[in-house]
Amino acid sequence: MPQTADDLDAVAVRTWCSLALDALGREREAIDAINVYPVADGDTGTNLYLTAESAAAAVEAVFAAHETGTSVPSTADAVRAMAHGALIGARGNSGTILAQLLRGMAGVLADEAGERPGADRLRLALTRAAASAREAVAHPVEGTVLTVATAAAEAAGRAPGGAGAGVVAQAAYEGARTALEATPGQLAVLGRAGVVDAGGRGLVAVLGALVEAVSGRAPDRLYEPPAAPAPSAAGDCPAADDPQGGPAFEVIYLLEAGDGPVERLRARLDALGDSLVVVGGDGLWNVHVHVDDAGAAVEAGVEAGRPHRIRITHFAADRVHARPEPAQRAVVVVVPGDGLGGLCAEAGATTVLARPGEPPASGELVDAIRRAHAREVVLLPNDGDLRHTAAAAAEQARAEGIRVALIPTRAAVQGIAALAVHEPDRSFDEDVVAMTAAAGATRYAELAVAERQSWTMAGICQAGDILGLIDGDVAVIGENVPETARGVLDRMLAAGGELVTLVLGEDVPDALADTLEEHVREGYLAVDTVVYRGGRQCAPLLIGVE
Fold it and tell me: How many whole angstroms separate alpha carbon 31 and alpha carbon 396?
């Protein structure tokens, strides 16, 4: 549940990061679609999502470090983690600016924690954020996310005195939304395309999450984007608005350096290209610039300090540097246990292990796609909660020149069904259609142990009860695994089925598989059963019915 303390303490910061990540995940494709400035490369939504994901992961790590104790992290620890995570994970022009906005806020919230009322701290934090973001951009342009951030800070400052942090956050959101709607009239390229600024729209989503985090309710007026404009006539936009007419490369790297060398670096990079943004401080910086001479931009970083995580993207080719000749097609699968990982690897898939309570980040999925070393990749996330993460990873891989199809599998048994019909010799589209159909025709279930008394769709459960979840909802409550599993199978097979897949957890005896196979054989004619060992996985039993 969202924080309702009307303040931005550590728990609210954690909630804000989570809600912002969800909001950017929902809007990622729409934001990508309106990305026309500074380069129309269609990745602003993806870059904002990846930056927010890194920030959220850093905050979760701080909370995880406190799990063994009874306390939660301090506000200072939480906001500093958020800012650091955003800094090291910032992607693209928009993500780099978002990282600086969060860093500006963190500087106030960490230093002022407990010394001012929450509303006053939030006002000052938003003001500092907008100012620091402008300072980080070599040549600020109005009609961009910088304008939206400034309007948010000014609106927060006009909120009634004595109001709570929730009221201040709502005022900032309203100010940002109003400024966003005005951006087409401020920046010619937006006006010609008939869109609002993509980065500004992302910031509105982040501020909407802030409202919900500190007040416990969504903003009073959610942002409703205008209808999609008709495509502009060819030649409408000048060459400067087209990646073909601007610098050829985007260069991004983290840099360990002092303040003095970074100031000299800014001047050198500003002479080399445009869209220069340098954010950070205290010895660690994130550098972003568009240039024609990528080597010179990296060399400048070497002279200033120690650059690492260097990423160079060629706008014209829309890919990272050429790689050796890859295979034609591969499948990347997220698996909940090492047993299924071995099974999928034997079938030729590249696997990513999802450990209990530690879902893979988009970076891990992108790394797996790269390891697959193929021109075409089918991605099977096998978890509904990974849909935004997987979508962002797929978009990032596409930017590197890899054709990626994301099949939205929600459970491992759906991934097994999809992998079973994979045929790399047929066309990519035909293969994806067949795999999607197989996954969609597979109902999924799992058994879990109730941790506490709770209301469910199947009634009240007690701590220690065995829960049978079908398609994500509790459908059966039992006292033991065999009884609950039989109840789940009966409910699933009542709607028909030809094949039952059972995936047993590490500590589940083989006798359970024998019992359930016999139950299916005796009660349901012409239904086959296959059994796999899942190894260390969070659920004692996974069930699929095709």
Answer: 14
